Sequence to fold (247 residues):
Amino acid sequence: MRKKIIAGNWKMNMTPSEAKALAELLIPLVKGTKNEVVFCVPAIDVTTVVKAVKGTKIQVGGENIYFEDKGAYTGETSADMLLDAGAKYVILGHSERREYFKETDEDINKKVLKALEKGLTPILCCGESLTQREQGITIDWIRMQIKIALQGVTAEQAQKMVIAYEPIWAIGTGKTASTEQAEEVCRAIRVLIRELYGQKTANAIRIQYGGSVNAKNAAELFSQPDIDGGLVGGASLKADFGAVATA
Ligand code: 13P
Fold:
């Protein structure tokens, strides 16, 4: 049985002092859940949030890394930096990074390899635009994104990873994919993982849905056979995350 994983993606929200207050608000609300809960937070907040969740089962993640170990890359955060600050996860390939910061599938592949080499667990994001969905190429697109991102990743490494299916048209729009749409793509991702790595890896890898997940729709989405939890934006910044994380 795969353990469900519910991750909040705080995006570019919360100063360190706000992050501390939010973590303290959420900790009692997610207590007692059987799910794994992760707060993915801005790099500047990682140390503060790691300290705040100490003694709980909550894990902390970053929202990005650079694929080099260290050096003259002004403004970037390395895998070692996140790990040393206490993070265990890192979101990679979020559609906002692809769109605003021009990350390519090849960049994301290098970041996935670096995270795995260092021992950070990637939450690898993929997702189609509304135009792509209307063109009927959703599954082809997702398969391409994942196949490139996983170049050079071994089955053993893939088993530990998390893949987040986030249709771009559902992010921050209040327009959630229907349960059937979300399950269809998450199932297709598992089929692809089976093709690439075999049944054992397909059974082990966790696949999340993300895009306007909230306290009302989380339980139904997460009850689908191939949806192992969610990557949550807006609802992770408020008390609603308690209901999402325990769904
Ligand atoms: P929303 O939950 O705000 O739609 O954001 C989803 C997301 O992008 C999580 O990574």
